[in-house]
Every structure is written in structure tokens, then in C-alpha cells.
Design a protein that fits this description.
Radius of gyration: 21 Å
Strand order of the largest sheet: 1-3-2-4-5-10-9-8-6-7
CATH class of the largest domain: Alpha Beta
Distance between the termini: 43 Å
Helix content: 25-40%
Number of strands: 12
Largest sheet: 10 strands, mixed
CATH topology of the largest domain: Rossmann fold
Number of helices: 10
CATH superfamily of the largest domain: Class I glutamine amidotransferase (GATase) domain
Number of domains: 2
Structural class: alpha/beta
């Protein structure tokens, strides 16, 4: 069964990928399948790519189990007219989120504009989303910047700037037994693309459990129970497609040629095969000697040919285990709710919660 897109408004790129006709919402999925909110906050150039990446990953990881996806995006993230049209066509108004409870929610990051995340224009709304997720989901996935924002809001843990961008594909070892890792191999492999990190000692002091870490990339995957929701944090990007790092690398090269950054970007670690890496080194020499925006026209586009999603097994396993975890929590919640409650005296109710 394909992913079910709530509301029946299926983004065109995903509609082109699926061969099934059952793309509108099926009420039975709402009753028996998992319901997941995807809060996609990526900037316009990556908005639809990110959407597609999560669709593909969830589709593979879910197998034959139906999963209903409902799309949202934070207000306050800068949008072009084209980006806003896409949101209007396929995403629900953000106020709709507060009216719902979901089995799981996935919150993406976005490109930061300020060193202090609390200065971002969407910060207050994002903080409200974290608080809402703790009470209205069984589990919450937080991707990259969203992970950094969550630990800052929930526990005051600040991210640390890196001397250079952590960029490429990095292997990490399992540092804890957990259902999210399941039968995942001792080594997992995920892409990373970030200028900042949160550190293990500070996470451990605040009660987080680190599940995977890398000698080169630091903490990779870590979790903490937040009220009713298990918060699952990724500093990396298991959802990335095979060519995503290549697109980001070319974008950063363009920024160098436009004098929007002073240093030439480092090639992504353990990603390009030797022939492609050599072609990119040759182009780098040309770009350094002829730093004009027009130089990008000779960028060797052939380097994307044959790129492999070497992290697909790790990504699929972790997301499959996450969906199983969410399903188990749903069953547990339903079973608990089926038992009659025994009155234990008067209770007062404040803001829809038992005080």
C-alpha cells in the first residue's frame, strides 16, 4: 500500500513516482493505520526534495503497513511566491496542527540565519510545537537543526560551532541497546551536513541516551522520553537521497564564487568515488584562479552519475524500527484506555489536563 496523503492533495513529484491509484485518504487508515505529521521547514530550494525524501523512506520502511501523512510547515520560515504556492496547494494551515493528535511527528530543520537559534523568527512557534508534541504524539523525530532547537528549548543545551562543516557520510557505532536499532548492524552510516554540534557529556547530564556515535562526526542518534512522547534526535540526515550531498556541495561552491562565503567548501567525506573527486579537484583549481559566478557553468555535472545511497540499509532499519515502536505505543495506549478507570476522589481540570 502506498503512503496515504491526508486530504488527498498529493504533491506532484510523489504522484509521478507511485503507480497506485489509491492516493486519497482512506478513513480506515485513520482508524487502523499510523498517522504521522511531517512538519517540513526546509527552505524553498530543498522544500520539495525533502518532502520526497521522507515519503520514499517512510514508504520503504513501512512495508505493507499503511501510514497516513499530514503535511505542515512552520510560519516564519522565509518563502518565495513559488514556495508559498506549494504550501498552499499541498500543506495544511499550521493552526490545524493544534487540533490533532498523531502517532508520530517528524520535524525537519531549516537553514539558520542567526548563531542563537532563539533569535530565529520562527523560534516561539517551534518551541510551542515541541511542547505540543510532548503531549500529543507517541514519538517525535527531530532532524538536524530541529534536534539542536529541541534540546535548547527542553533542557537549555546549546550547540557548539564546528571549526569546519561536518559534511559527508560518516560511520557510527552503536553505543546502547535500543529497540530503534533492533537488528541494525553494529556500524550504521548516515550523511551529515552541519556547522554545529551538541556534545555527549552535556546530553548525558540532561538525561539523554546516545544510541550511536562516530569518532569523526560525534554524537549521531540520541533519545529522551518527554512526557508522553519519545523524542528521537538525529544530528545527521538518514532521509537524504543519493545526490543530495552533491547538490549541497555545488550550492556551496556557487556561494564561494558569488563571494557569499570566503573559503572554498570542503568536499563531502566518503561520498564521491575517486574519478569524480579528481574531476572536482580540477574544477576547484579553476574556481580558485577564476572566482566569478560564471565559472560555475563548467562545473562537472557528470560527478553525480553512479552515486550510491550507501546509508539506505541503516536509514531503512532505523525508520522501520521507529514505526514499529510507534505502533507498539499506540497498541499500549489503546489497551490502557480500554480498562475502566476507578474514581479516586475529586479532581480539578485545568487547560484540559488533570491538575
Amino acid at each position: 500500500m502506498p503512503l496515504i496523503i491526508d486530504g488527498g492533495r498529493v504533491p506532484s513529484r510523489w504522484a509521478e513516482r507511485i503507480s497506485h491509484s489509491a492516493i486519497a485518504i482512506d478513513c480506515r487508515v485513520r482508524r487502523h493505520g499510523l498517522c504521522v505529521a511531517l512538519i517540513n521547514n526546509m527552505p524553498d530550494p530543498a522544500l520539495e526534495d525533502t518532502e520526497l525524501q521522507f515519503f520514499e523512506l517512510l514508504d520503504i520502511a513501512s512495508g505493507d503497513e499503511p501510514v497516513c501523512i499530514k503535511l505542515y510547515s512552520l510560519t516564519g520560515v522565509p518563502r518565495t511566491a513559488r514556495g508559498q504556492r506549494h504550501l498552499s496547494n499541498y500543506y495544511f494551515p499550521f493552526d490545524d496542527l493544534w487540533k490533532n493528535r498523531f502517532d508520530g511527528v517528524i520535524i525537519t530543520g531549516t537553514e539558520p540565519r542567526f548563531p542563537n537559534l532563539r533569535e530565529e523568527p520562527y523560534w516561539n512557534l517551534l518551541a510551542q510545537v515541541f511542547d505540543w508534541a510532548q503531549r500529543n504524539t507517541s514519538s517525535t523525530i527531530l532532524s538536524c537543526l530541529a534536534a539542536h532547537a529541541s534540546v535548547l528549548h527542553c533542557d537549555g543545551i546549546k550547540r557548539h560551532p564546528l571549526p569546519e562543516k561536518k559534511f559527508g557520510v560518516f560511520e557510527a557505532t552503536s553505543s546502547s541497546d535500543d529497540v530503534l536499532l533492533g537488528k541494525t548492524a553494529d556500524l550504521v552510516r548516515f550523511p551529515h551536513s552541519r556547522w554545529n554540534e551538541v556534545q555527549q557529556d552535556e546530553l548525558a547530564a540532561a538525561g539523554y541516551t546516545v544510541l550511536t556515535k562516530s569518532a569523526e562526526a560525534g554524537v549521531d542518534l540520541f533519545v529522551k522520553q518527554m512526557k508522553q512522547s519519545l523524542f528521537v534526535h538525529f544530528q545527521g540526515h538518514p532521509e537524504y537521497a543519493a545526490q543530495t550531498l552533491a547538490k549541497e556541495y555545488k550550492r556551496d561552491v556557487k556561494r564561494f564564487l558569488r563571494h557569499e562565503r570566503e573559503t572554498y567548501p570542503t568536499m563531502p567525506h566518503a561520498y564521491f568515488p575517486p574519478v569524480a573527486a579528481q574531476a572536482l579537484k580540477c574544477f576547484q583549481e579553476r574556481a580558485l584562479s577564476d572566482r566569478r559566478e560564471e565559472t560555475i557553468d563548467s562545473f562537472p555535472e557528470s560527478v553525480v552519475a553512479g552515486l550510491q545511497r550507501t546509508w539506505q540499509t541503516s536509514a531503512t532499519n532505523v525508520y522501520r524500527n521507529w514505526l514499529r515502536c510507534v505502533e507498539a505505543r499506540r497498541v499500549e495506549r489503546s489497551t490502557f484506555a480500554a480498562f475502566p478507570r476507578v474514581a479516586s476522589g475529586p479532581r480539578s481540570v485545568m487547560n484540559n489536563e488533570i491538575a
